[in-house]
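To illustrate the input format used throughout this study, we show a single complete record. The first block contains the structure-token representation of the backbone; no residue identities are included at this stage. The design step must infer an amino acid for every position from geometry alone.
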């Protein structure tokens, strides 16, 4: 299964990607699922249902959480998580709740993830390929790959429709729920995968957000 694990909707101030455009185009870009990971919020839950959409697309809610020691994609019951946690406190909170955390774009020049978080085993799942990173920033993950037992993912970090699905994660087992996703991430049943760009579905009937509303 192919999932884009790192997608920002226009709920994030920096993104121009409408929810309806994600729903309309994801399957036509070869995706089985998308994870909505807006900055510091899971308010997407007020706009659409989590889970299987009318066209079969699986939508799972997460969050990109920013700390002084790096950014993390978190998955689990974190709608009301405090917004000012340190990386250590965040990762311990995620683990205690049975969730999963992914070190996002860990070698991005202006927002790297601190090495000690990986060295101490607080986070062992990393976004090895990020669609907005430079090739060199993505290659630097090899420093950790050769030293620690890591699970690796890929994500487009889409903020526009053109970016959706350009980098994805391939899972070697079905993902039918958030719990399935968390288990696969924790147990290494995933790998980064280069996505592709079939034509945008401009001529196709739109999937209305109302079809997926709560």
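Output of the design step:
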């Amino acid at each position: 299964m192919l999932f884009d694990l790192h997608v920002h909707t226009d709920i994030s101030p920096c993104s121009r990607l409408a929810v309806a455009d994600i729903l309309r185009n994801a399957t036509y870009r070869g995706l089985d699922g998308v994870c909505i990971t807006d900055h510091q919020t899971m308010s997407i839950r007020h706009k659409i249902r989590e889970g299987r959409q009318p066209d079969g697309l699986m939508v799972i809610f997460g969050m990109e959480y920013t700390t002084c020691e790096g950014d993390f994609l978190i998955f689990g019951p974190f709608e009301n998580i405090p917004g000012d946690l340190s990386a250590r406190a965040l990762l311990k909170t995620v683990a205690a709740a049975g969730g999963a955390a992914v070190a996002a774009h860990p070698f991005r020049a202006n927002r790297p993830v601190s090495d000690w978080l990986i060295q101490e085993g607080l986070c062992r799942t990393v976004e090895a390929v990020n669609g907005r990173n430079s090739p060199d920033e993505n290659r630097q993950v090899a420093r950790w790959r050769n030293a620690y037992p890591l699970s690796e993912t890929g994500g487009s970090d889409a903020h526009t429709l053109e970016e959706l699905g350009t980098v994805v994660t391939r899972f070697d087992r079905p993902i039918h729920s958030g719990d399935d996703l968390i288990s696969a991430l924790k147990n290494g049943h995933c790998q980064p995968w280069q996505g592709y760009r079939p034509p945008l579905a401009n001529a196709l009937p739109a999937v209305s957000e109302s079809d997926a509303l709560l």
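Structural context for interpreting the output: The longest strand covers residues 2-7. The chain is about 20% helix and 25% strand.
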